[in-house]
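Late entry, written up from scratch paper. The run itself happened at the end of the previous shift, but nothing got recorded in the book at the time, so transcribing now.
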Amino acid sequence: MKETVKGRAFVFGHNLDTDQIYPGRYLELTDAEDVGQHVMESADPEFVQKFKAGDIIVAGRNFGCGSSREQAPYALKVKQVGAILAESFARIFYRNAINLGLPVLICPDISQQVTGGDVLTVDFASGQGVNARTGRMFQTEPLSEYAIKIIESGGIAPLIKKEYGSG
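Output as recorded:
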């Protein structure tokens, strides 16, 4: 994982639930490429066509509410989302995202500071970011050293295998 991420912002509102992130009707899909083709389609049907690897999702409060299934953060990871900045996250979604190696950062009032298409740069360790269009700096809650270690390893399972072996 890079220490910083730079990407275009895709802005969503409050209470974006896991079914909007990854619709339940696709739960039977197992191929990562197939899964990635349906991410965010209930919230923005054109998301997959517009999104480029490394781009950033910005949202209001309670991102990832709803069910506790891991397919929602997994779909975002396979689509190579650079980071998700939200005013708050549903607790289980937040933990699932970190465990899968997907950077999620809490940033109060971020949805009022960013417009879709803005280019953002965020440093994961310090939590500092900047909006290139406005020049305005913003501060996220920085990730813990352990969360960064999990994300750098690609998730909790690869970290455990690396540190303790597979046997």
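The mean pLDDT is 94.
(Scratch paper discarded after transcription.)
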